[in-house]
Design brief:
alpha/beta, seven-stranded mixed beta sheet, five-stranded parallel beta sheet, 15 helices, binds nicotinamide-adenine-dinucleotide
Length: 502
């Protein structure tokens, strides 16, 4: 019987040693200028300590180290089965450091500790392990050419991959790029968000401990307009794996155009629609599932189901049901083991979310529940889970990504209208259809312009399937074997085969 008391995360947080320095060539180091920035926790506004403010000189050093590692073959030259073993060890190290990584993630960006432990750390390890497992099972091709030749189609690692990620799932987003990029033999320079740099820096140390050669995986923290821009403009970076806002994604394409035409893979924002039809039998279950997906991670999920299109005949009942679910997600201290909603990432995001709630009100939508800042006494950044009714698809809160715990209910009267409303968005990340009519579910799923469509659920998710969006939600696909396409070049090699022996 396990009689150990449950961990006290406050005590552990107080005892944690945090190192915000850059990792290049497997070594911790200060920024070239010696500058740092103060890393504040959204839990209570307190400082977590200084983080190196990486700039162009640091990015140049990291790319130089990554290039040298790539060129001498210390990683790319290893047989796939060897890279597999080392990456599996990396995944094991991540799991072994579960408590520390979970605590860093929660302190840095405010999500509940129970989810950092149960979701973020294991998902990160699983992603690395999945690509490790895959890499010695992916075969190249021989083309069906004429008998006088042999044409081989092979995949080669690209070289140096720049990875730039956001703060909402810092480790998971990084792992979606690191897994396929490292497994394929590339070197990586990772620029985490300035709002959540801590776990990325620890990952780089664990990678070296696992046997990934120094220089293969470097991490330069810093601001987007400084370290991020330097990486995306770098002439010796072959591709950028980017996850973040559509605004910054646009910049990534410009940087590539202004520099070396590096490949740019953008995983961007969303304004995902749920289409709820009256022939779906379990409205209460739907309300519970939709609220669960919307309010998970404080609503800071690119695929959050933030536009709920409901048939007018069931809209009133749905609003009652979803409004009854929302208070179950009342924000609380992220370091308490039972907390289900934590802090939004910082005061800027807090102001943005509250500004959207104000915009919804002033455009005539009705707040059914929530709508205010919460836990002001904590000194942190908390928002009540909020449901708007009477939303029009043209309102700002229906068109723009809020990235906070705000759900909008929009009514429709016909299936065609529902599809048109769902597709009337600059984004196309995910969608979901709720109907017990099989033909309708298929018909509507086919008509929706989104990278993933769920039917009668919202949380389908697995490493085996691609994740990414249509339209301004991006162009790349993370996860699944398809992600290897992003970090490998296809090469054709022609060999002549003489018909006669000499
Ligand atoms: P952001 O675009 O502000 O920042 C993302 C990253 O880009 C950060 O590391 C930031 O420092 C860097 N950056 C910012 N400006 C830059 C610049 N001028 N040059 C180079 N780098 C720059 O986004 P965010 O606020 O950190 O993240 C939220 C966004 O991420 C949301 O739009 C969300 O939908 C999106 N997201 C998408 C997915 C997906 O898979 N499609 C997943 C998670 C998050």
């Amino acid at each position: 019987m396990n009689t150990a008391p449950p961990p006290n995360w406050h005590e552990r947080a107080a005892a944690l040693r945090i190192d915000g320095r850059i990792v290049i060539d497997g070594q911790r180091q200060a920024a070239a200028t010696g500058e740092t920035f103060d890393n504040l926790s959204p839990i209570d506004g307190r400082s977590l300590g200084p983080v190196a403010r990486g700039r162009e000189a640091d990015v140049n050093a990291a790319v130089k180290s990554a290039r040298a590692a790539f060129e001498d073959g210390r990683w790319a030259g290893k047989p796939p089965a060897v890279r597999k073993k080392i990456l599996q060890r990396f995944a094991d190290k991540i799991l072994a450091a579960k408590d520390e990584l979970a605590l860093l993630e929660t302190l840095d960006m405010g999500k509940p500790i129970q989810y950092s432990l149960a979701v973020d750390v294991p998902s990160t390890a699983r992603c690395i392990a999945w690509y490790a497992e895959a890499v010695d099972k992916v075969y190249d091709e021989i083309a069906p050419t004429a008998a006088n030749s042999l044409a081989l189609i092979t995949r080669e690692p690209m070289g140096v991959i720049g990875v730039i990620v956001p703060w909402n799932y810092p480790m998971i987003m990084a792992s979606w790029k690191l897994g396929p990029a490292l497994a394929a033999g590339n070197s990586v320079v990772l620029k985490p968000s300035e709002k959540s740099p801590l776990t990325a820096l620890r990952l780089a140390e664990l990678a070296v401990e696992a046997g990934i050669p120094p220089g293969v995986f470097n991490v330069v923290p810093g601001y987007g307009a400084e370290a991020g821009e330097a990486l995306a403009l770098h002439m010796d970076v072959d591709a950028i794996g980017f996850t973040g806002s559509t605004r910054t994604g646009r910049r990534m394409l410009e940087y590539a155009g202004r520099s070396n035409l590096k490949r740019v893979y953008n995983e961007l924002g969303g304004k995902s629609a749920v289409l709820l039809f009256p022939d779906y039998g379990n409205l209460k279950g739907a309300a519970r599932a939709i609220a669960g997906s919307m309010f998970f991670n404080q609503g800071e999920s690119c695929n959050a189901p933030s536009r709920v299109l409901v048939h007018e005949s069931i809209a009133e009942r749905f609003v009652e049901l979803v409004a009854a679910e929302a208070p179950k997600y009342a924000p609380a201290d992220p370091l308490d083991a039972g907390t289900v909603m934590g802090a939004v990432v910082d005061t800027t995001q807090l102001t943005t979310v509250l500004g959207y709630i104000e915009a919804g009100r002033s455009e005539g939508a009705r707040v059914v529940t929530g709508g205010r800042q919460a836990r002001l006494e904590s000194g942190g950044c908390y928002v009540e889970p909020t449901v708007f009714d009477g939303v029009d698809n043209e309102m700002k809160i229906a068109r723009e990504e809020i990235f906070g715990p705000v759900l909008s209910v929009i009514r429709f009267s016909t299936e065609a209208e529902a599809v048109a409303l769902a597709n009337s968005s600059a984004y196309g990340l995910q969608a979901s259809v709720w109907s017990d009519n099989l033909s309708r579910a298929h018909r509507v799923a086919r008509a929706l312009r989104a990278g993933t469509v769920h039917v009668n659920q919202y949380d389908g998710d697995d490493m085996t399937v691609p994740f990414g969006g249509f339209k301004q939600s991006g162009n790349g696909r993370d996860k699944s074997l398809h992600a290897f396409d992003k970090y490998t070049e296809l090469k054709t090699t022609w060999l002549r085969i003489d018909a006669e022996a000499p």
